[in-house]
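yo

u said u wanted the structure for the complex thing, so here. seqs first:
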Amino acid sequence: MTRVFLVDDHHFFLSGLRAELGSEFEIVGEAGEVDAAVDGIRRTRPDVVLLDVHLPGGGGRAVLEAVRQTDHDIRFLALSVSDAAEDVIGVIRAGARGYVTKTISPPDLAAAIRRVEGGDAVFSPRLAGFVLDAFHGDLTGVVDPELDQLTAREREVLRHIARGFTYKEVARRLHLSVKTVETHVSSVLRKLQLSSRHELTRWASDRRLV
Amino acid sequence: MAPRRHDDPEASPTTTQVPHRPASSAVIVRSRDNRVLLGVAGGLGERLGVDPVLVRVAFAVLAIAGGSGFVLYLLAWAVSVEPDDETATARPVRRPAARQAVALGLVVLGTMLLLREVGLWFGDRVVWPIALAAAGSAVIWARSDDRDRARWARIPGNPIEAMFTGRVGLIRVVLGGLLVASGLGLGFANTGADLAAAGDALLGVAITLIGLGLIFGPWATRLASQLAEERRGRIRSEARAEMAAHLHDSVLHTLALIQRADASPEVVGLARRQERELRAWLYRAPVPPEGRLRPAVEAIATRVEQRHIVPVDIVVVGDAPLDEAGKALVDACQEAAFNAARHSGAPLVSVYVEVEPDELTGFVRDEGKGFDPDRVPTDRRGIADSIRGRVRRHGGTVSIMSSPGEGTEVQLRLPRSQMS
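structre next:
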């Protein structure tokens, strides 16, 4: 059974998650603030951490940065009510493998956890839109074309996700295998994490309105 | 799993920054961003690691002390070069350091003493007070941080301008001027040592002060009220941020919870609408973006959700001014979204709009029951025709992809107007 650790400072929400996920996953621990989360995750070594973006004591980003210094193979799925580009891009760049909003339905959340556990990336339509937006426009200041721009195929895959299609539907419409779609999305995630496109950080902080 | 790098990309600037050309060590590169006359002082300041303001003061003081500042400035300009675009933007700015500033001050002082010895000098009574006053102002200016400077620069009107404003501006200034003059006259006329003279001198000082108050009073009060207003504004925005953080932690969470619960569709729809409104209030831009495509598209969701309980997801990539083509796209998307919410029976409607260099694209999609495009029910045909008509009038195309049980997607393409 997949071992999941929950990090959220909202107790009501936390207990809701526990009830929904408890039958399908083994909940190995939970925490409501940064230090307790880092300790708990290091001790229990879960497969997947469900991480709230907003936490007292430094935010989800601080948890990611601390844990990833010692444990590279623990995977993080970010969860947030805010949906602000700054927060989303921030946790993804800190190493989360995906981002979903807290309004996600329980079955979709379970599917997202499995996908992240399998090493794939989870992109909501909104995150796909953010990435297309951030990698949009001119290429001045681009250093590494490998990392700083999307291929035509990746762009097409992201557009479909932004339009609301599931990975399976995207695969069917573009005549690809689901595995290939997943590979494209993972490669976009890698670019998002490693690209130095100077627009990226500035873009996220400028774009306060969602 | 693919091998990944774990270092934070922002933490390793050496591999990521634009490789800038090393600035030649022999010349001064004039500053582009930090320029008052020709950018020489700015460039020199960046090179030496001193606040350019101090360099400017040094030139000015040397100019007063016998005019050598002019010569030095022109000399520095002659040996300096214009920046090219790359160095202007990519060069790291050295932090001004106190030690360099003191060194610069000593060099200027030494030069002044030398000039005094050689005779290139306007006289002790002129040069020293001006030099001291200039140095003092420069220190104050250099020490106040950028925010303070911006605030001072924003204060409306200078004292001279403020003097003559108001109903009785001219009379007030003339009266004030007379008082100052008579006060000074009274003070200076009685330079004797007896007690009566001292009284007269005090009276002179008082009259002078009243005169100055008349002249500069309005400006001073305006300054004070301006600063007080700014302070109130800051307090308000801090209080707002605090409240936003609180609402974010409590109310947004509750609304999210309601949407995940097994509540009735009406309650879920209500929670979603409330969440959208609250979010818009929490994260709204300080200046509401008027006449842009993005907010116009985002507003579709609110309108559709107000009338139907189906949630609408909006994703917009890029932004553009809301021109005729943009308005046509927004209207067509909205009509398609209303249509999907009303007829498809889908739990969600997705709207995606992208601004591309030469066209605007829009996709409105649902996973509802769909229909056979060849046998469109008449009640839907009218709407499809109106969407088509709208888009075609602006030179665009519409295609509707649908089949029974597969959901529907309306695809819109409009060429962008040339002006945008």
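The beta strands of chain B are 28-29, 80-81, 312-317, 349-355, 359-366, 397-402, 408-415. Chain B has three domains: 20-143, 156-284, 287-415.
cya
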